[in-house]
Amino acid sequence: MATYKAMYKHELARAAGVSTRTFARWLKMHAKQLSKYGVTTGSHLLPPSAVRYVCETFVIEI
């Protein structure tokens, strides 16, 4: 089981191989689920629980 740490959106976008704009669009589609983890559209730093959700949803290996 992987251990997740807090990460910035631009770091996750780079790991996914997409632009930050594209990554923001991906997150926008999942805004309701991400709000459960305390992530808003203005958040830059995602908590570990949100990073785990994003990595599992978009199949991003970090």
Keywords:
single chain; 62 residues; mainly alpha; two-stranded antiparallel sheet; 4 helices
Give a quick rundown of the structure.
By secondary structure, the chain is mainly alpha-helical. The chain contains four helices and two strands.
Can you lay out the helices and strands and say which pair or pack?
Layout: E1 7-8, H1 9-16, H2 20-29, H3 31-35, E2 45-46, H4 48-58
Antiparallel strand pairs: 1-2
Helix pairs in contact: 1-2
- What is the beta-strand fraction? 5-15%
Q: What class do helices, strands and sheet pairing give?
A: mainly alpha
Ranges with pLDDT <50 over ≥5 residues? none
The main β sheet shows up as: 2 strands, antiparallel
- Tally of helical runs: 4
* Biggest sheet strand line-up: 1-2
Q: How many β-strands, per DSSP?
A: 2
Helical content (DSSP H or I, runs of 4+): 40-55%
How far apart, in Å, are the first and last alpha carbons? Answer: 12 Å
Q: Helix-strand pattern, N to C?
A: EHHHEH
Name the shape in a single word. Answer: globular
Radius of gyration using CA atoms only: 10 Å
Number of structural domains: 1
Task: Kindly report the average pLDDT value.
Answer: 94
Would you mind describing this structure in some detail?
The chain is mostly helical and 62 residues long. It has one domain. 55% of the residues lie in helices and 6% in strands. The chain has four helices and two strands. A two-stranded antiparallel ribbon has the order 1-2. α1 crosses α2. The longest helix has 11 residues. The chain is globular, with a radius of gyration of 10 Å. It starts with 6 loop residues before the first strand and ends with a helix. The mean pLDDT is 94.
